[in-house]
Design goal:
By secondary structure, the chain is an alpha/beta fold. The protein has one domain: DsrEFH-like (Hypothetical Protein Ychn, Chain: A, 3-Layer(aba) Sandwich), CATH 3.40.1260. It is built from four helices and five strands. Strand 1, helix 1 and strand 2 (36-41) form a beta-alpha-beta unit. The protein is globular.
Length: 119
């Protein structure tokens, strides 16, 4: 079976809903089945991979799993440059190595993938 190129787009803040956890689960499962998985963080989704997060009691923390995406073979992690700027963040604030991408390049990036799932 040929590997599918799968892009997961994160658009919501962590812990505001289950979207981030669900997208992370899909990413890790896809990578475990040797699919070519890429991640893109847009808008409040950039907070999903912000370093130094603390959660309230009873909320499952996803930061350790996000920090391990490279161990699962997910090396293409993109973050929207204007989303970072609008939230007072930069690439050094992220817990994983990211590739900054501008608005014009997002469409081209998405078109390079067989499947795009937005969370």
């Amino acid at each position: 079976m040929n590997a599918q190129k799968l892009m997961l787009v994160f658009t919501s803040a962590p812990y505001s809903n289950s979207n981030g956890q669900e997208a992370l689960d899909v990413a890790l499962i896809g990578a475990a089945f040797e699919q070519d998985v890429s991640l893109l963080f847009l808008h409040d989704g950039v907070f999903q991979i912000k370093a130094g997060q603390q959660t309230s009691a009873g909320i499952k923390q996803t930061t350790k799993a996000f920090a391990a995406v490279n161990d699962f073979g997910i090396d293409d992690v993109y973050v929207h440059d204007l989303s970072l700027i609008a939230r007072g963040l930069n690439t050094e604030d992220m817990m994983v190595d990211v590739k900054e991408i501008d608005t014009k390049a997002i469409s081209s990036l998405l078109n390079q993938h067989d499947r795009v799932l937005t969370f």
